[in-house]
Design goal:
This protein has about 200 residues and is an alpha/beta fold. It contains six helices and seven strands.
């Protein structure tokens, strides 16, 4: 559908790269600035959905003309009901890796598309993964590489961590940060021309 405008509510270069795989280039990048603190007892899936929705709404409201669709996403790494933080320091990354070592965990990747008329389309992917049992040497080597910085759960599957994943069921692109199957379906349902 010609004339549709897409704004991406994320500064993540990975999300832009993933959108490009669908042949989509957002007209504008406007990162959402919201409080990302989980509510007390909030479940990981619900939290991911709420974050994507709030990011889309936060960016949509400042757009004066209201002529753009706003795409936002959020990725949450969870062990059981526990939401793992984005690792901003090495100690947090180490704690996450030690917790994930040899265990299954889930990654919820939620996307929300706010339309100019105020309607909201939403999708969420759930991926299950299991790290191999990590040795102290493997943890030290991964931490030294720095890929963990700013990543949910302290790892980036698109980097060296992929070699530490023993098993995965679900969306690889969702673990990176934007589930392509769900994103494609969501954009097509809004009228975007995607092959």
């Amino acid at each position: 559908m010609p004339g549709l405008v897409l704004v991406l509510a994320s500064a993540s270069p990975r999300r832009r790269e993933l959108l490009a795989r669908l042949g989509v280039t957002p007209e504008q990048i406007l990162p959402a600035e919201i409080d990302e603190t989980p509510a007390k007892t909030e479940l990981p899936r619900i939290y991911a959905q709420r974050m994507a929705r709030e990011k889309a709404l936060a960016v949509r409201s400042p757009l004066a003309g209201g002529e753009a669709h706003v795409l936002a996403g959020d990725t949450v790494v969870a062990v059981g009901r526990r939401i793992l933080p984005k690792a901003e320091d090495e100690a947090t990354a180490r704690t996450c890796l030690e917790l994930l070592s040899g265990r299954r965990h889930r990654v919820f990747s939620s996307i929300a598309l706010a339309a100019p008329d105020g309607t909201m389309r939403e999708r969420v992917s759930e991926t299950q993964l299991r790290f191999k049992r990590l040795s102290e040497e493997e943890i030290r080597a991964y931490l030294a590489g720095g890929e963990w910085h700013g990543k949910a759960g302290g790892y980036a599957i698109q980097g060296c961590a992929e070699g530490l994943i023993a098993w995965m069921a679900g969306s690889h692109s969702g673990v990176i940060g934007l589930p392509l199957f769900e994103t494609r379906a969501l954009l097509k349902s809004a009228g975007f021309a995607i092959g």
